Amino acid sequence: MKQDLTSQIKQPEAIYVAAAFLLLVVFNIFLSDVLHDKVHRTGTELAKQVYELNLDPIASQDIIATLVKSQGFAMSASDVPHNFANFINLEQEVFSYKTVNLRLFHWPSWLVESHLFLFLNLILLGTGYWGFRWWKKMFKQLAVVEKPVIKPFEPLGNQLAAKKIAPPKPLGHQDLNILYGVPTNYNHLFALFFWKNPFPANLDVDNYFKLVIAKGFGELVNRSVKLLPSGGVAVTLNSVPATEVDKYTKRLHQVIYQACLNYRSDLSRSDIKIGVCNYRTGADQAVVYQLTKSALALAKQSAWQHIHRLPFGHTQSSMLADSKEHLFEYIKKKHFMLFFQPLFDLQTGDILQHEALIRIRHKSLGLLAARHFIPHMSSKKDVLLLDQTVISQVKKMLKNESGPLTVSINLHAMNWFNDEFWEWFKQQMVDFNSAEKLQFELSEDDYLKQHKKLSEQFECLEKLSAGIVIDNVRTAEHLATYKDIKNVCSIKLAFELIHNIDTNTQQQKMVKQIINKGTELNFPVYAVGVETQNELATLKNLGVIAAQGFYFAEPLQKLADITPYS
């Protein structure tokens, strides 16, 4: 593979060098021709001057010689200094103007104008060298994107275990290209259109818009168009990058508007209304349709807002609140999936650890993230089963993994103080020899409020060599107190400090203070919830050593224990 990569890079290099050499030769030939033409014009002007002064070629030979010499010419070869006579021949030409013909000698134009030749050739060579470096780097980056070097499940190693983390080193501009190449998460878009004036009766609207959408969104593999009985058009765009949902929504309106102008030139942008719902795989299509209709109704009611979008997740929490369902039963019946969110080292691109995330498979709302269903699991019994389920699945997975692996688990706040949970946990670790691969995340707020009641839990985890991660850190004020906990291995910044950090100087200041204090105490600082390239670049410049979030990749499904609905 390495030889193939080298040959792929060397081949375009050879093409570039050959093209650059050919360009250099053509340029010098052209420059020489231009300078020779300049010499010819100067000689012709001398002949014109002799004619106009009515100088006799014999009687006024001294005057003519002086004029010729002033322009760098000579009447005979003996009058030219012979500094280069041993290896450069003089050139002679006859310059004519009407009845005057002058035979003059001169050095080659490239020698007379050598300073210009050197200057322009140096500029061309410098430009060629810069272009060569850019060319070479571009092909190397393309090769990296085709084969991203991201190692799965790499632990922090002995440095983290000993909490000896070196201060973050400044990163080059291209160091994170490997991470930029990791796929982002995707949404699907369902859209409904409305226009005030109907199309001509002879137009096949259905096929026309199928062609329009296919041409306008050719980069998307899966897309569909359907003409509704009401006369509107429904469009579905699948696998749209989550970070570009708004961009695709606006583009959709523009594509439809331009298509309408072909048949209705009197239409304005306000005559085209669009309602959009973005959702993920597994969402209830009936709910998606209703949300899209609501979005279209809002757009039609507005005089200036022609596009309205409602995300599917917007209704999940409210629908769960209104539902009489007991989410305890979903977990009990194993209607869930376990995912792992990778944490990337920003210097090497390696995966340092994974955070375990559980998703409930709701029968109508699709996959529900923890932030949607945990607020509706308020009983001690529910949250106990939740964390027991996650730990059991992680334990099962770790037993099947032969390589090194570090997994962090977010325990529910109630379970940190639940004696029943800790008794169960100790029993689970009796026959488990990889407890050192586990890390448990604890919110900074919970620690500050209840740290006196957590000594036994910390002691239990320390005996098992399991780590503790202080999560949701907002300030550097309390970092020094974590030195009292022997197995604290990292700090995770609060999401509110990460979101839009690229435009908020106050957030940048807070994060910088946390990083400086963390470096002083040998606590590595991680960022969570990174969603954009600008956020990542800002965090990298501030000194964050690792990050996770949907910008890098969707959570990876490494273990799923699923049974059909009964």
What does this structure look like?
With 566 residues, the chain is α/β, with parallel strands linked by helices. It has three domains: 113 residues, no CATH class; 133 residues, Reverse transcriptase/Diguanylate cyclase domain (Alpha-Beta Plaits, 2-Layer Sandwich), CATH 3.30.70.270; 233 residues, EAL domain (TIM Barrel), CATH 3.20.20.450. The protein has 20 helices and 17 strands. An eight-stranded mixed barrel has the order 8-9-11-12-13-14-15-16, surrounded by five helices. Strands 4-5-3-6-7 form a five-stranded mixed beta sheet. Helix 1 runs antiparallel to helix 4 and helix 7 packs across helix 8. It is elongated and about 125 Å long. It comes from Pseudoalteromonas gelatinilytica. InterPro entries: Cyclic-di-GMP_PDE-like (IPR050706), EAL_dom (IPR001633), EAL_sf (IPR035919).
Strand coverage percent? 15-25%
Strand order of the largest sheet: 8-9-11-12-13-14-15-16
Distance between the termini: 50 Å
* CATH level-two architecture of the largest domain: Alpha-Beta Barrel
Number of continuous helical runs: 20
Main beta-sheet annotation: 8 strands, mixed, barrel
Mean pLDDT score, rounded?
75
Query: Tell me, what is the CATH class of the largest domain?
Result: Alpha Beta
Any idea what the radius of gyration is? 37 Å
How many strands appear in the DSSP assignment?
A: 17
Summary keywords:
566 residues, alpha/beta, Alpha-Beta Plaits, TIM Barrel, 8-stranded mixed beta barrel, 5-stranded mixed beta sheet, 20 helices, 17 strands, disordered C terminus
